[in-house]
Amino acid sequence: MNGVRKLFSNPTEAPLMPTADELLSSADVDTLAGLLRVAAPGREWRHVAEVAGELGELGLGERARAVRDALLLDLPAGYRPAAEVLRAALRRPGFSGWLVWPVSEAVATLACASGSAADLDDGLKLLAELTPRLTSEFALRTFLNTDLARTLEAARLWSAHPDPHVRRLASEGTRPRLPWARGVPALTADPAKTIPILDALRRDDSETVRRSVANHLNDISRIDPELAAATAARWLADPADTTPRLVRHALRTLIKKAHPAALALMGFDVDTPLAVSGPNLLEHHVPGGGDLTFTVAVTNTTPEPARVAIDYVIHFRKANGTQAEKVFKLAERTLTPAQSYETAKRHSFRPITTRRYHPGEHAIELQVNGTRHGRVSFNLSV
Questions:
Q1: Residue-wise DSSP of 284-338
Q2: Helices 207-223, 243-250: inter-axial angle, 10-degree rounding
Q3: Looking at domain 2-265, what is its CATH homologous superfamily?
Q4: pLDDT band per the 50, 70, 90 thresholds, residue 6
Q5: E strand or H helix at 275, and its extent?
Q6: Domain locations in the chain?
Q7: pTM strictly above 0.85
Q8: Sheet harboring 306-317: ordered strands across?
Q9: What are phi and psi of 295, to 5 degrees?
């Protein structure tokens, strides 16, 4: 379970992620086959055993689907007999980790294909039983796309579950833009449908659950900024001790986009007079794999303390010669009258899997409390 949360915590660190074989390995599938043989000794688990040796160069999602398909071939026909076998296997020691992903996908496929509301409800219950062993958030997407209202009601009830892993599933599995997961068009079209779940979980005792709530609201902010800002404002009007931190994380995208209401909620006044110097580049040429180094100085010129959000924007050159911008967080500070914040920053252009760099002219500028300053060009060679 912890592995999946760490995996998605910082997508910019993609080169440091475990490989697919380190997550869902042939050994994991062999373990699954062994557990199933004990749970249902009268059945042949030939396809599951065979797929363990066929994972090869498959990525993680492809591996999960391949093992799911093998399970569907080997399990008894029909949702209920298959669920009985899987529950028996779930009671065995060792039924945990990444092998749970394809199992949860098989549950979703069978329950949603059954056409029975009772089977769908039991399938959701089985996901809740599985999720403490890793996570069932990906499989929940099949249920959402099959019967949105019924699945959201189950998630709403999970928000009061005694197990924090199940409460997290209520928030994480219903995110409009869950990483690595299939989309749910109905939630993209109307993200307000999940707000009652977030309302129920925003004060949760578990930091992991609250982190999921923040990420979920951040997803919503990319689709409906006004809804996200209004929800955050409502929470801040009736806060728990943990609410300011949750909201700050939830509004991170809107802060980078200089959304006025989000900036105001976080105490950043777009009208505060500030003296901004920078970005001042140490050099205007960055070799391939090198760093862009620049300095920044922001001074509060008012007679009152001022909250400042300092970001920097890089305009990356695209293959067609145009530029596309990305905003990066630099600092948040409260400056007393006449106080300055000065810093030097190095931005790495080392190759990463999530971005391809193109040689030629790029640009950088600062964004302070939502206002852009000092755009300057530099050249990158790769």
A1: SEE-TT-EEEEEEEEEE-SSS-EEEEEEEEEEEEPTTS-EEEEEEEEEEEEE-TT
A2: 40
A3: ARM repeat domains (1.25.40.290)
A4: very low
A5: strand 274-281
A6: 2-265, 274-380
A7: yes
A8: 285-286, 371-380, 360-368, 306-317, 323-335
A9: -115, 160
pLDDT tens digits for range 339-381: 999 999 999 999 887 889 999 999 999 999 999 999 999 999 9
The C-alpha atoms of residue 2 and residue 41 are separated, in whole angstroms, by: 31
Q: For 176, which DSSP code? A: T
Residue 153 CA to residue 130 CA, distance in Å, equals 19
DSSP 8-class letter at 352: B
Fold of 274-380: Immunoglobulin-like (2.60.40)
Q: How far apart are CA 333 and CA 142, in angstroms?
A: 43
Question: Tokens 């964004």 identify what position?
Answer: 367
Task: For CA atoms 48, 3, 198, 264, give the dihedral sign.
Answer: negative
Q: Which helix (H) or strand (E) holds 348?
A: strand 340-348
- The tens digit of pLDDT for each residue in 127-151 reads 999 999 999 999 999 999 999 999 9
Q: Which two tokens stand for residue 216?
A: 């979920």
